[in-house]
UniProtKB/TrEMBL annotation, chains A, B:
Homodimer. Residues 28-349 form the Aminotransferase class I/classII large domain. This is Histidinol-phosphate aminotransferase. One of its GO terms (biological process) is L-histidine biosynthetic process. The modification N6-(pyridoxal phosphate)lysine is found at K218. The gene is hisC.
């Protein structure tokens, strides 16, 4: 009945596998790269104030938040679109640009929503292997053919924490034809330490077909509110706006995100804690003799070289939730969010027991 | 550049025309059918409590809210899906079922998102005239042909406040072929006074291809939070879930909506105020000799028989925002939300001046 009439692709879509959420308090949730300090306090203040207006529809274009972002990023507000999480903007991009059968180049072992939105719009994902757990921009450029319509990049890369450099991106953009839309998901940008990280917005000012995605879910501690944004040249953004439902971003997300942007002391604390957590993890993982990747984000990738699902279960019993990377196609690896000092120690303690 | 590569339909999509929002306090906003008493107080309590978890991703399947709805509606929770507003579920339905070129039957002069999601998925909207400002189910049934894939109904009808009855729906469902998905948008259900209003969920229990949409934006006063839901047989809902982005409904929406469901005294107050407002409007509009429709919702449709955009501007200057129905294709009519006693009086006073 219903099955006979659905679009054929719907049957092929796989359900997203989220990080597990604890059912009781006191458990260290290191599975979804959330901010261990909770939401930005300034965001919470703004949210509490805005609740009195909850009976009113939200602003259709997130104008106040876009104004604040435009100022922060030194870019025209016409170059900005806000979404119900940045994954909504991935879907908008596919809905706006992707015609059935067109190809989308995506790394293997990456965030699954790139593949999802491609398939949902009847596009064809073309997967390119990682090289030493990093995106291989040369190989991705070689995969381009006349059917290529979009390329998804993720920088820093989820789940491995690696980056491609300014120099690499520059060469890549010189090779890729102008009629291909390049999307760079920079969900973890704010945690980057490397000075070689690209300033992607520069290319938008130069009018490249580039869409950069950012989020308030990680650094700003607002994953539960659903708010992310896209930056691209005005013309490109104007088409994304046409494909969007009127009231996509809730009032509290608009108000909370705007306030979070200004919460400098919370953001400094978050960055500093992450830096210290990274150093701690490197030292402890070295002691344990484990293979891991230096990270430019708020999580660390560890190659266990044995089934990760087992360790996941064992760690659960220790009160620590980690992310086995089976759903990323890496069944012998885990991704662990950098938490508070106490959470990180709890993880290392549990890990030592079960190696 | 960008224009050459977009999907052709994107250029045809029209931007949604929202109700105007006042820039200063003290203005009666009667343009978007929002709850004049603000958000449900119990929802506000639940929201305040839930903000402490805002750094955590929301539940992917809105489980707790669906459990509460299942209990309230006496239906299996597998028959329920929650959306970022019910318009997200309209889009999910189109993304799940609609193939390019398939036809979707929609009333003329109705809520514009039905047409929007149809065009976005490359479907072909087929418009059927209203009959005495109500949906003409007979004419809609006659518009069915082998290319018909979906039918959008709106009950009570936005923007005219009319309904189709249980008997009418029953006959309609007997005629429509089983392979067509019928969507009934019941955004204003809770305001219905008529005893002839259909119990649509009955047909879902009978396994019809019917998707019923409801919202927390009107009666429950949560338009700014973005939360609506769909009810359909399990199989149909399971396909909608496959087409949805993982974290579509924010945490506060899930918690707030669940609490609002239980806020019986707020809901009674809302219903009673609406009933009194209706009676007041009928009496005053009769005195003014204006043509209007008896309403089963929280707004009233008035046929001015002269350009509504002018009255809209005049009323703005009086501190009352109404909805001229130009964007609905009815340039000589207005839709006015039923507000508080004071707001309703302010509207009638302003209207009297400008007739």
């Amino acid at each position: 009945m219903a099955e006979e009439i659905i679009r054929p692709v719907i049957k092929e879509l796989k359900e997203y596998v989220p990080g597990k959420t604890p059912k009781k308090p006191g458990i260290a949730k290191l599975s979804s790269n959330e901010n261990p300090f909770g939401p930005s306090p300034k965001a919470l203040e703004a949210i509490a104030k805005e609740t009195r207006n909850l009976q009113i529809y939200p602003d259709q274009k997130s104008i106040l938040l876009r104004e604040a972002l435009a100022k922060e990023l030194k870019i025209d507000e016409g170059c900005l679109i806000v979404g119900n999480g940045s994954d909504e903007i991935m879907q908008l991009a596919a809905a706006t640009y992707l015609k059935p059968g067109e190809e989308v180049i995506i790394s293997k072992n990456t965030f699954s929503v790139y593949e999802f939105v491609t398939r949902l719009l009847d596009g064809k994902p073309v997967f390119v292997d990682l090289k030493n757990y990093a995106q291989d921009l040369d190989a991705m450029a070689k995969a381009v053919n006349p059917k290529t319509k979009m390329i998804f990049l993720c920088n820093p890369h989820n789940p491995t924490g690696t980056i491609f450099t300014a120099k690499e991106l520059d060469s890549f953009l010189k090779i890729i034809p102008e009629n291909i839309l390049i999307i760079i998901d920079e969900a973890y940008l704010e945690f980057v330490e490397s000075r070689e990280f690209p300033e992607s917005l520069k290319y938008i000012r130069e009018s490249k077909n580039l869409l950069v995605l950012r989020t308030f879910s990680k650094y700003y501690g607002l994953a539960g509110l659903r708010v992310g944004y896209g930056v691209a040249k005005k013309e490109l953004v104007s088409y994304l706006f046409r494909a969007k439902l009127p009231f996509n971003v809730n009032r509290l997300a608009q108000a909370g995100a705007k306030a979070a942007l200004e919460d400098k002391s919370f953001l400094e604390k978050t960055y500093k804690n992450n830096l210290e957590g990274k150093k701690y993890f490197y030292a402890e993982l070295d002691k344990l003799g484990l293979e891991y990747k230096k990270t430019e984000s708020n999580f660390i990738f560890i190659n266990l070289k044995k089934p990760a699902d087992l360790l996941f279960m064992q760690m659960m019993r220790q009160g620590v939730i980690i992310r086995p990377l089976t759903s990323f196609g890496l069944p012998e690896a885990i991704r662990v969010s950098i938490g508070t000092k106490e959470q990180n120690e709890k993880f290392i303690k549990g890990l030592s027991k079960h190696l």
